[in-house]
């Protein structure tokens, strides 16, 4: 049996970031992952995430940002419009006195950069391709049986193991969920016109289509959310027919489009755990919540979770308090639940508002959206929230924080 301080289940971006945030505190940490170790040769531009400024600050603090940015594409403007009305809104980095609004990053490149930063820490160990056979907790410890042969006894266990979290199921933490009744089609496209570092999103009658700039000037990643019947029809098309449908759906904003990679799809479901902790077990990121991708905030929300948890653990250690006690974990839960609930609610309002085809409501949303575009103070508030420059942020994610790794 091995005694350690913290077990982190899941070596995705959230789990590895948490390990990096906690590593300098001298805690003994083991990260368990059922999949393979990060591999930069397995990158897939279809699996990308939009990172905002708050996430960039956290990743910069742990020293991983330079490697992530080298393989990412920043965007300095956002264009959002409604295909079914005159509604349109644009955000520009220059107007906000910023160099960029965010970055489109390959998920595996993020993992790889984080994993590389962990290598110098002898107090952190990652176990890949492992199976958790059992997870049992007492009042003082959490016991994990790995691969039927190794026992880990830790003071705290963090579930960072994604939307189908084994930790959440094993702890019987109740889950609220509803089906968005949409599927997301993802793929990489080549455009006739350069994307000019602009992230674009059009709201179609059955769901949004996002065109996200990639490192090549004429290459984008798409996320096309639509009703299951429409998704099935799009997936059944040959590449030429799909490319033509995509060009039409985007109003040829980037000229003729050609699909470059095989299309993939996944169901869109909102998941929200009504309890994020039990005893010495706590959930973060997608294990605790998942949201619609229309605003690209999923990974940002998860990274703020781990930054908040690491902040509270650090404060507890500085005050010689127990970092794994339920009172501290409940503080984390209250803090981050409020942020997650706000974002989940906002995404539901957006989805319902733009999927309604009643003429009066279409007119109202068009007037509202165009009105916001003409109110600089309101636009600034909206973009500040999206960029991670407002809200109840962890200290490392706040705009005024300068770190040792800052450029």
UniProtKB/TrEMBL annotation:
Domain of life per record: Bacteria
Pathway, per record: Cofactor biosynthesis; ubiquinone biosynthesis
Keyword field contains Ubl conjugation: no
Keywords (A to Z) from UniProt: FAD, Flavoprotein, Monooxygenase, Oxidoreductase
InterPro entries referenced in this protein's UniProt entry, alphabetically: FAD-bd, FAD/NAD-bd_sf, Ubi_Hdrlase_CS, UbiH/COQ6, UbiH/COQ6_monooxygenase
The keyword Secreted belongs to this UniProt entry's keyword annotation: no
Gene Ontology MF annotations: monooxygenase activity
Domain FAD-binding residue range list: 4-343
Record-linked Pfam families: FAD_binding_3
Cofactor(s), names only, from the UniProt record: FAD
Family note: Belongs to the UbiH/COQ6 family.
NCBIfam families on file: Ubi-OHases (TIGR01988)
Name of the protein in its database record: FAD-dependent monooxygenase
Organism field: Rheinheimera baltica
High-level lineage: Bacteria, Pseudomonadati, Pseudomonadota, Gammaproteobacteria, Chromatiales
């Amino acid at each position: 049996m091995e005694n350690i301080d913290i077990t982190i289940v899941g070596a995705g971006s959230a789990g590895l970031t948490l390990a990096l945030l906690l590593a300098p505190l001298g805690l003994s940490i083991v990260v368990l992952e059922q999949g393979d170790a990060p591999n930069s040769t397995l990158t897939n531009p279809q699996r990308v995430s939009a990172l905002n400024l708050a996430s960039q600050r956290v990743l910069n603090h742990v020293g991983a940002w330079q490697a992530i940015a080298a393989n990412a594409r920043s965007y300095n403007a956002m264009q959002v419009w409604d295909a079914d009305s005159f509604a349109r809104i644009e955000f520009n980095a220059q107007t906000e006195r910023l160099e960029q609004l965010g970055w489109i990053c390959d998920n595996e490149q993020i993992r790889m950069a984080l994993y590389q930063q962990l290598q110098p820490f002898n107090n952190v160990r990652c176990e890949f391709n492992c199976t958790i056979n059992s997870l049992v907790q007492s009042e003082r410890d959490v016991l994990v049986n790995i691969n039927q042969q190794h026992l880990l006894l830790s003071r705290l266990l963090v579930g960072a193991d994604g939307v189908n979290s084994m930790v959440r199921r094993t702890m019987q933490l109740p889950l609220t969920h509803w089906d968005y009744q949409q599927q997301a089609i993802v793929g990489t496209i080549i455009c006739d016109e350069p994307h000019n570092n602009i992230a674009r999103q059009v709201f179609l009658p059955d769901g949004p289509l996002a065109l996200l700039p990639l490192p090549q000037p004429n290459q984008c990643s798409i996320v096309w959310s639509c009703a299951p019947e429409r998704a099935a029809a799009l997936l059944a098309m040959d590449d030429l027919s799909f490319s033509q449908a995509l060009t039409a759906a985007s109003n040829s904003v980037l000229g003729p489009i050609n699909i470059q990679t095989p299309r993939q799809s996944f169901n869109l479901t909102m998941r929200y755990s009504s309890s994020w902790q039990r005893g010495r077990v706590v959930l973060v990121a997608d294990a605790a919540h998942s949201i619609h991708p229309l605003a690209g905030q999923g990974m940002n929300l998860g990274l703020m979770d781990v930054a908040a948890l690491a902040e509270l653990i650090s404060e507890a250690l500085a005050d010689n308090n127990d970092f794994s006690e339920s009172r501290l974990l409940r503080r984390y839960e209250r803090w981050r639940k409020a942020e997650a609930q706000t974002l989940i609610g906002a995404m539901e309002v957006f989805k319902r508002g733009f999927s309604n085809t009643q003429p009066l409501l279409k007119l109202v949303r068009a007037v509202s959206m165009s009105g916001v575009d003409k109110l600089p103070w309101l636009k600034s508030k909206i973009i500040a929230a999206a960029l991670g420059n407002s809200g109840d942020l962890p200290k490392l994610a706040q705009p005024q924080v300068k770190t040792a790794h800052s450029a």
